[in-house]
Every structure is written in structure tokens, then in C-alpha cells.
Amino acid sequence: VVKTMRASSLVLGPLVARCGRARVSLPGGCAIGARPINLHVGALEQLGAEVRQEHGYIEAVAPQGLHGATVEFDRITVTGTEDLLMAAVLAKGESIIENAAREPEVVDLANCLVKLAEYEAAAKAAKEAEKAAAKAAKEEAKAAAKAAKAAEKEAEKAAKLHFNCTGAHRMGSQWMPCTQHGEAHGSGTSR
Fold first, then answer.
1. Among 19, 30, 112, 178, which one carries the catalytic annotation?
2. Which of 67, 58, 19, 66 is nearest to 37 (CA)?
3. How far apart are CA 109 and CA 113, in angstroms?
4. What's the CA gap between 31 and 125, in Å, rounded?
5. Do 43 and 80 touch, CB atoms closer than 8 A?
6. DSSP for the chain?
7. Is 178 labeled as catalytic in the residue annotation?
8. Residue 51: which residues within 8 A CB-CB, separation 6 or more?
9. CA 22 – CA 62 distance, rounded (Å)
10. CA-based Rg of the chain, rounded to a whole angstrom?
11. Residue 162 class from Cβ within 10 Å (0-12 exposed, 13-18 middle, 19+ buried)?
């Protein structure tokens, strides 16, 4: 299908940027005549892609990803600018496009890419906040379990004291009635 469309060249840049490799059919079907894509290819090569053309296909590879660069188009190209914009936003580093097309659809694409970056940053921040909250909850649960275990040991200790209590405790040289275990009990007499 893309052999009959001009749009096949528009996916070359973003695919090689995201996947490290792209293979698309040479574009066709342009009503105003042949429109070569050498500007697309040259721009992608400046971003670090290796591009080959054979058997009616264009294959671009960038195993280490694309890198930012200053790219100057020899002449204004709308689809070349769009293709490079989509590739450059995924490249490492900063890219500058000189002699870029300024048509409304190019401006719309640039604005769309900026919005997508904002959404991606917000989603990343939300995910990090979720991780931090989960970590804090896990730490709180650990602390609560530790406190509960300590309280359980204290309760066991108090129960043993209460169970073994004869009803009086020695206070200095005198025996006093037991009130330490929540109630007076036992005979309260001296031993």
C-alpha cells in the first residue's frame, strides 16, 4: 500500500529512532511528479543512521540510537522537516533544523510533539510518586509490624509477671499490695 503513497517516508525517521532499524517502501503516488527523499536520507545520516536503498526499499539502521545534530536542508521540505522532527525528539542530545519548513501542519506537528513530551514527563513523575508512596507504605508496614511484635513481647512479659504474682511486691523493706498489673489481687500480705 505504501508504494502508492508519499507518506511512507514519514515513518522512516521515527521508526529508526525508536527501534534502531526501519525498512520502508520507496514512496510513490505523488500527483505533482517525482519527489526524491534524498533530503530525508541525508538528514537521518547526520543524526547517525546508516541508510541503504535497494530493491525498492529504504533501510535505515542506528543500533546505538540517533544523536542530536545541526541539520541544514538544502531546500525547504515539508515532509523532510516532519520526518526529522519525529526522529530528533527521540534522539540523544539536541537537534537544530535550519531551513526548516514552516507550514501550519509542521507547526501543528511540533506542538503535538511538545505536548506528548509533557504528557510523558507527567506520566513518569506520577509513576515515580507511586513508587515512592509504595516504598513509604512498605516501610510503615515494617515499622508497624516491629512495634506490634515489641508490644506483644511486652504483653507476654506482663502476663508472666501477673501470672506469677503472689499479690504483693517488695518495696524496699516493706511488702506492698500489687497494683502493677491493672488490678489489686492476691492476699496483699507480706510473705
1. 30
2. 58
3. 6
4. 46
5. yes
6. -GGG-SGGGGGHHHHHHHHSEEEEEPP---TT-----HHHHHHHHHTT-EEEEETTEEEEE-TT--B--EEE-SS--HHHHHHHHHHHTTSBS--EEES----HHHHHHHHHHHHHHHHHHHHHHHHHHHHHHHHHHHHHHHHHHHHHHHHHHHHHHHHHHHHH--SEEEETTEEEE--TTSS--S-----
7. no
8. 41, 44, 45, 58, 59, 60
9. 9
10. 37
11. middle
One-letter amino acid at 13 equals G
Q: How confident is the model at residue 9 (pLDDT cuts 50, 70, 90)?
A: confident
The arithmetic mean of pLDDT across residues 32-52, rounded, is 85
pLDDT of 190 above 80: no
| Whether residue 169 has pLDDT greater than 90 | no
Q: What is the mean pLDDT of residues 91-106?
A: 95
Q: Provide the sign of the torsion angle of the four alpha carbons 63, 65, 69, 74, taken in this order.
A: positive
* pLDDT at 96 exceeding the cut of 90: yes
